[in-house]
């Protein structure tokens, strides 16, 4: 029986090498080379399926190399009841935390103001804010949100976190449910979005949330483009409700060349690179998940399709 690799062709060699290092006997084929279809028992995909995965009669599980699986859950090319696992790996977690900490510290140390001052050859004074005076609201306290929140606490920020079920994270004031959202963001200086995209979270970054933040707050959005109501962000930037936005994810990716975000000096655009994982870093879980799939056991980081993440 055979694994079908159907993720980015450029990363195929890295993944195959890492999988074979752990399971030397593994048969691996590379999309679109999948005949005979009956041989395929396990498929590795990225954020999207490259084609119809319903044609494999012996498929036992699908493994995504991405953490967020919203596109896969709405993709008619996926068999609707085949177990699906998402990726959780140290590479993704550490790099996401770096990104968030970097932009939180850039905010604290007034990076944008200093860079603008240099353009004018102007010798300005810093505000000298202490991290303890800044509230960071982390929306989504899962694998990534908890790691980032813990690091921000370590740096002295006042950190709040919001999740569906109430979470306990040392040093973080936690909230849950719809009522907890407003309390979590009220008066926050930085809002970080690390939610999965589901029916409940689509459009959650909207005028209501922006109006609850501290005037001039910074939005760090690294989850999914459809969380953000773009028109509400522009209104909030125009009114000063939001001072600046750092955005890594967009409704359409790549972000179209004529999209106004590219040229808006109040918005920092990055091309969905907040978290980066080297091909092969999650191979241990993939090999274990194939073993589990063949044994009919639940997968590591199996997606709960009814919950949507
Ligand atoms: P997890 O599944 O570990 O965590 C998701 C968190 O969101 C959980 O705390 C969950 O609550 C919470 N949540 C889900 N739905 C709701 C809701 N309706 N109300 C309140 N809280 C909710 O995911 P990860 O931390 O691994 O990843 C989060 C997201 O980050 C991914 O889905 C993806 O979209 C994005 N991402 C972006 C990347 C990038 O490069 N830009 C890279 C990797 C991920 P509970 O704890 O109760 O389950
Ligand atoms: C994601 C990822 O889910 O890059 O965005 O893993």
In words, what does this structure look like?
The chain is of the alpha/beta class and 309 residues long. The chain is 30% helix and 18% strand. It is built from 9 helices and 12 strands. The strands form 2 sheets. Strands 8-7-6-9-10-11-12 form a 7-stranded parallel beta sheet. Helix 5 links the parallel strand 6 and strand 7 (158-163). Helix 1 (12-22) crosses helix 9 (283-295) and helix 3 (90-108) packs across helix 5 (143-154). The chain binds NADPH dihydro-nicotinamide-adenine-dinucleotide phosphate and oxalic acid (OXD). The site of oxalic acid has 6 residues, from loops.
**Gross geometry:** elongated
Strand content: 15-25%
How much helix is in the residues?
25-40%
Q: Report the uncertain regions.
A: none
Q: Largest sheet, if any? A: 7 strands, parallel
First and last CA, distance: 29 Å
- Rounded to the nearest angstrom, the radius of gyration is 21 Å
Strand order of the largest sheet: 8-7-6-9-10-11-12
The mean pLDDT is 97
Name every ligand kind in the structure.
NADPH dihydro-nicotinamide-adenine-dinucleotide phosphate, oxalic acid
Describe how the helices and strands are arranged:
Elements: E1 2-6, H1 12-22, E2 27-30, E3 40-45, E4 61-64, H2 70-73, E5 84-85, H3 90-108, H4 111-119, E6 135-139, H5 143-154, E7 158-163, E8 172-176, H6 177-185, E9 190-193, H7 207-212, E10 217-221, H8 230-239, E11 242-247, E12 267-269, H9 283-295
Parallel strand pairs: 1-2, 1-3, 3-4, 4-5, 6-7, 6-9, 7-8, 9-10, 10-11, 11-12
Bound molecules: NADPH dihydro-nicotinamide-adenine-dinucleotide phosphate and oxalic acid (OXD).
